[in-house]
Specification:
Aspartate Aminotransferase, domain 1, binds pyridoxal-5'-phosphate, 11 strands, four-stranded antiparallel beta sheet, alpha/beta, 12% strand, Aspartate Aminotransferase, domain 2
Length: 473
C-alpha cells in the first residue's frame, strides 16, 4: 500500500469510525450468533494473491462487525466498562503509524520520557504517595504477576531468580475470597503453588477481614511457613468492595510481608478527593495497580503499575545482553527491565492525549456523574419491594436480584434471576453479567462507558423491570 492509497483508505476508515461512534447503540449490544458462525465465513487458507483494500474493508463491515459485542453501546452494563474515547483512539493511530517500540530509552526516547511524566501525572491525580514510581503494563494481570515476582525475589534475596526453587521455600500469599482470578493465575505462574494461596474470609460487606488475615499469618508462621505477600483489593470485581487498606498495611509491616493493592477498576475513582477514603493507608503499600483502560476513557490496553522500591523491581527483571547495551543505561529508565515483555507499545501517548483533552477536572466530572447516575438505580431498588440490593454500592456497580413478594426459596430465586438475565441478554437490547454473592445469583449493573447517561440508564432499568414482571414465578 503506497501513501496515496493509504491516505484514501484512511479517510474512509475514519469516516466509518466517527459513524460507528454515533451509531454504536443501534447495533445489537451482543451478537445473536453461535460459536463457529464467524469462522465459517472465513476462507480456510490465506490468499495467495493480493486482495484490494476495498474488499477487505467491506468484509470487515459485513463479517466482523456483526459478530462483535459493542462495549461502547449505551445499554452495555456488563463486566466493567472499557474506555474508548476519541483522543485515545487517535493517539493509538499515531503510535501504530510510527510502529513505535518502547523497550529502552534509545528505541523511543520521547516515549520513555513521556511515560515517566504521565506516571507522575497519574500519581498526583490519584493522590498516591510521592515515593511511588510508575510504569505502564499491558494489563492488571501482568502488573499483579510482576508485583508477586518482585516480592518473591526481595524475600529470597534474588536467589529464586538465580538458582530456581530449592524445595525449602514455603512461601504463602494471602488475598480475600473476593479477589480477582488474576491473583490465582499470578500465584501459579510465579511457581508458588496454588495451595499456598490463602483466601481470607470477608465481612458482610465483602471486605477482607483483617483480623482473620492476621490469624492466618500467625498460624502459618507457627507452622514455619513464610508469609510473602498480601494482595488486597480496592473495588472487587464482584461488588466493588474495598478492603481495609490501612489495617492490611499495618499487618504487612508487622510480619514483613509485601503488600500489593489491586485497584484495577476502582482506582480511577481516586481522582475524586471524596473517594480517597478507599486508599487510606496506601503509603504503606509496596505496589499498586489501576487500569486507565477501564474507567478513564483510555482504550485497551493501558495498566498503570506503581511500586515503592523501583530498584527491587528492576533487579527482578533486568537482563542486559550485549546487543541491548546503550551508553545512556545509567541515566534513563529502560522499561524492558520493569516488566515481562521486551517490546512495548507506546501507551503513554494515549494517556497524554486523554488527560489533556478532558483535563483532570473533566475526567473527575465524568466519573462523578457515573457514580451519581448509578445512585438513581440504587434508589429504584431500595424503594421497590420486588428487587433487592445484594451488596453496598460505593461506586457505580449495583448488585441486585429480583425477588417477587412472598418468594423465599433460594434455589427458585437463583433460577428466576438466571432466567431474567439470560432473557434480557437474548434480546440484544441490553447486556448484563452476573456473579455469586453469599451463594445468591446476583445481577451486576455497571454504567461507565462513553455513552452512559441517566436517560440510557433509566431505559435499561425499565427493560429489567418489565422483563422481570413478564416472568412466570
Ligand atoms: C479487571 C480486573 C482485573 C484484571 O484486569 P486485566 O487488565 O484485564 O488483567 C484484575 N483485578 C480487578 C479487581 C479487576 O477489576
Amino acid at each position: 500500500m503506497n501513501s496515496s492509497e493509504f491516505r484514501k483508505s484512511a479517510h474512509e476508515l475514519v469516516d466509518w469510525m466517527a459513524d460507528y461512534m454515533d451509531n454504536v447503540s443501534s447495533y445489537p449490544v451482543k451478537p445473536d450468533i453461535k460459536p463457529g458462525d464467524i469462522k465459517k465465513l472465513l476462507p480456510g487458507n490465506a490468499p495467495e494473491k493480493a486482495e484490494n483494500f476495498d474488499s477487505i474493508f467491506s468484509d470487515f463491515k459485513s463479517k466482523i462487525v456483526p459478530g462483535m459485542t459493542h462495549w461502547q453501546h449505551s445499554q452495555f452494563f456488563a463486566y466493567f466498562p472499557t474506555g474508548a474515547s476519541g483522543p485515545s483512539v487517535l493517539a493509538d493511530m499515531l503510535s501504530s503509524t510510527m510502529g513505535a517500540q518502547c523497550m529502552i530509552w534509545l528505541t523511543s526516547p520521547a516515549a520513555e520520557e513521556l511515560e515517566e511524566r504521565m506516571m507522575e501525572w497519574l500519581r498526583e491525580m490519584l493522590g498516591l504517595p510521592s515515593d511511588f514510581t510508575g510504569v505502564i503494563q499491558d494489563s492488571s494481570s501482568s502488573s499483579t504477576l510482576v508485583s508477586l515476582l518482585t516480592s518473591r525475589e526481595v524475600h529470597s534475596q534474588y536467589a529464586v531468580n538465580q538458582r530456581g526453587f530449592d524445595g525449602t521455600e514455603k512461601f504463602r500469599v494471602y488475598t480475600s475470597s473476593q479477589a480477582h482470578s488474576s491473583v490465582d493465575k499470578a500465584v501459579k505462574i510465579a511457581g508458588l503453588g496454588i495451595d499456598n494461596l490463602v483466601k481470607i474470609k470477608v465481612d458482610e460487606n465483602f471486605q477482607m477481614d483483617a483480623h482473620a488475615l492476621e490469624k492466618a499469618i500467625e498460624q502459618d508462621i507457627a507452622m514455619e511457613l513464610v508469609p510473602l505477600c498480601v494482595i488486597s483489593t480496592i473495588g472487587t470485581t464482584s461488588s466493588t468492595a474495598v478492603d481495609p487498606i490501612r489495617d492490611i498495611g499495618e499487618i504487612c509491616k508487622k510480619y514483613g510481608c509485601w503488600h500489593h493493592i489491586d485497584a484495577s477498576y476502582s482506582g480511577a475513582a481516586l481522582l475524586l478527593p471524596e473517594m480517597r477514603w478507599m486508599s487510606e493507608g496506601v503509603e504503606m503499600a509496596d505496589s499498586f495497580v489501576f487500569n486507565p483502560h477501564k474507567w478513564m476513557l483510555t482504550n485497551f490496553d493501558c495498566s498503570a503499575y506503581f511500586v515503592k522500591d523501583k530498584d527491587a523491581l528492576t533487579k527482578t527483571f533486568s537482563i542486559l545482553p550485549e546487543y541491548l547495551k546503550t551508553p545512556e543505561d545509567n541515566l534513563v529508565n529502560n522499561y524492558r527491565d520493569w516488566g515481562i515483555p521486551l517490546g512495548r507499545r507506546f501507551r503513554a501517548l494515549k494517556l497524554w492525549f486523554v488527560i489533556r483533552s478532558y483535563g483532570v477536572e473533566g475526567l473527575r466530572q465524568i466519573i462523578k456523574e457515573h457514580i451519581e447516575i448509578s445512585r438513581w438505580v440504587k434508589d429504584q431498588i431500595e424503594n421497590s419491594d420486588e428487587f433487592e440490593l445484594l451488596a453496598p454500592v460505593p461506586l457505580n456497580l449495583i448488585c441486585f436480584r429480583y425477588r417477587p413478594k412472598g418468594l423465599k426459596d433460594e434455589d427458585k430465586l437463583n433460577q428466576l434471576n438466571t432466567q431474567l438475565l439470560e432473557g434480557l441478554n437474548k434480546t440484544g437490547e441490553i447486556l448484563l453479567t452476573q456473579t455469586k454473592l453469599n451463594d445468591k445469583y446476583t445481577i451486576r449493573f455497571v454504567s461507565g462507558n462513553n455513552n452512559t447517561s441517566l436517560e440510557e440508564v433509566k431505559k435499561g432499568w425499565n427493560k429489567i423491570v418489565s422483563h422481570a414482571k413478564s416472568l412466570k414465578v
